[in-house]
Amino acid sequence: MSLCILAAIVFWLFNAFNKNYSANIKFPIKFEFDGEKYIPADHLPQNVNVNVNGIGWEIFWNHIGWKTPQIILPLEQPADIKKIVASTLVPVVASQIGNLKVNFIVTDTLRIKIDRKISKRFKLYADVSNIEFNDGFGRVSPVVILPDSVLLEGPESHVRNIKDSIVLSVSANNVNENFRYEADILFEGSEFVKRDPSIAQVMFDVGTVQVISKKMRVGAEKNLLTSLPDSLTVKFQVPSKRVEEFESHFKEIQLKVIQIKTDGSKTLTSKILNLPSYAELVDIDSVRKVGKPNL
Description:
By secondary structure, the chain is α+β, with helices and mostly antiparallel strands. It has helices at residues 2-17, 56-63, 86-94, 156-160, 243-249, and strands at residues 20-32, 38-40, 47-55, 71-74, 83-85, 101-105, 109-111, 114-133, 137-139, 144-146, 149-155, 165-175, 179-184, 194-196, 199-204, 206-220, 231-239, 254-262, 265-273, 280-284. The longest helix is centred in the N-terminal third of the chain and has 16 residues, at 2-17.
């Protein structure tokens, strides 16, 4: 009895699969272009959904992905193409899917972003403002980055989006000894860009430091002199072993107040000049007007 049922099922399947059916099938796609000159600037579509007609067996094997062919889409000038509409895909797909017949393209539009490939070298800098030291400790040497530059090769839009340099983000807590950190060279769109190298070493010496507070005379543009206080309190962080050297050099350090325009308004900001490389600005009084400026 069971053999009869099995035979009936097999007969029904063979009979059913030999009929014509329509179905939606996702075909993997590959964009073909000159990889020496062009490169994707964003993730490219991985498949195209097509409504096809064909023998049941063909539909079945393609639907489960066993015999599904990859659709090759040739692009002669890929940087000039931003989208591929469904109607233009019909003849390309039809020529690559064997005995299946294209009824229509279900996927409305394929959006792509492929740029010209360019290369450029950029200087590396490190943002160490997020490093927290143990009490009484701090950075006592200049920051060293090895290597100090990176060669980028990738989509023109991403590479040209970088202005002049790349800033490495560095963070750590409870630092009380000489510092070494492997920083990933990251920026917007970096996943599409080849970086040589992809990481850089950020290093500096750590030692005991002292915070020195000073009253500094304010220097400013002529039209601001009467509107500012005579002096501001400024705090510097200095390596303990160089405090005496800092004191002897202090007379050369200058405090300037300048007026800058931001978003249509004028703002006063402070600037320290001639600060030794081993010293670090910790804090400075905010600049407030105390009278009317000279006109």
